[in-house]
Amino acid sequence: MKDRCCIVWNRGLLLCLLFLLFFGIGCFGEELLPVRKGIFVRHTYYCLDFNKEHRQANWVYYELFPKRMVKQAARKDNFRVDPALGEWCATLSDYRKSGYDRGHLCPAADMTFSEKAMSETFYLSNMSPQTHACNAGIWSRLEKHVRERAKREHLYVVTGPVFKEIRGRIGKNAVTVPGYFYKLFYAPERQQMIAYIIPNRESHKSLVEFAVPVDEVERLTGIDFFPGLPDSLEILLEADTLSHVSRQAASRGVKETASGTTARQRYTPSVKEQLLLALAAIIVFLLLRRLFRRKGKKKSSSHKRRSPLDAAKRNNQKKRK
Prior knowledge:
Blueprint: H1 2-28, E1 39-42, E2 46-51, E3 56-64, H2 92-95, E4 101-104, H3 115-120, E5 127-130, H4 132-135, H5 138-150, E6 155-162, E7 169-170, E8 175-176, E9 180-187, E10 192-199, E11 211-212, H6 214-221, H7 231-238, H8 246-249, H9 271-304, H10 308-320
């Protein structure tokens, strides 16, 4: 009975350790936040890095996936100061009669799955001054494009202003009007990283014409995006401009491997993942060896035990001698 309890205990320990290890590996990829440069603010369904000088976010990060693409909350336009930032946040008066829209970085239409999620997108820390032509035009088209992809796959999205060719400042708080905006996302299922830089003005061009390597956005903003990815994968993806435009891949010289997949699809586990997998293998080996040793001891002890008939035979042999 005691041996049986030990076996059950060992098996239970093995399962718990494996669960914790694989859960830990999954946690490494749970969030892929960009590098922080300002005040970090976390809301329920998105987070941001706030720039005190420009009175708006350097970046806003959030995730989209099919289950979130269900509309359950209506838009209420309750624009307000972010309580997490207080005096640093832009105010409604800064935008009033400025000629610029309060342009969402994390779109309200991306957060319709929850009343709270929707409401939090109206914090002014999630706004940036946009021309109406940009906000209602090319920028709106880009947001819809991202939502369409999110209906089919998991996306890690980062959005923010580019403080180049600044168009001036608005309001008492001197909120900077960016010359451009960027939006980029990582699609792990397809191993794609896609970036766009959109001018803060009217444009009727195709979205494809605004596609750039993520490296280009990093150069313009000084922000390191998705540093949590393995370095080998990050380098390949961030330098890839047209992974999402297959019809132009050949003209840009994207070489395919023998298996028919492009080089960007090769995945190398991170150092943390490799260490966890190695640790898991060692623990499994030790526990299995312990189980086999116990079984070996049982067999050897059973061989040592003799039945009464064997003992009688030995006694008779001694008497004959």
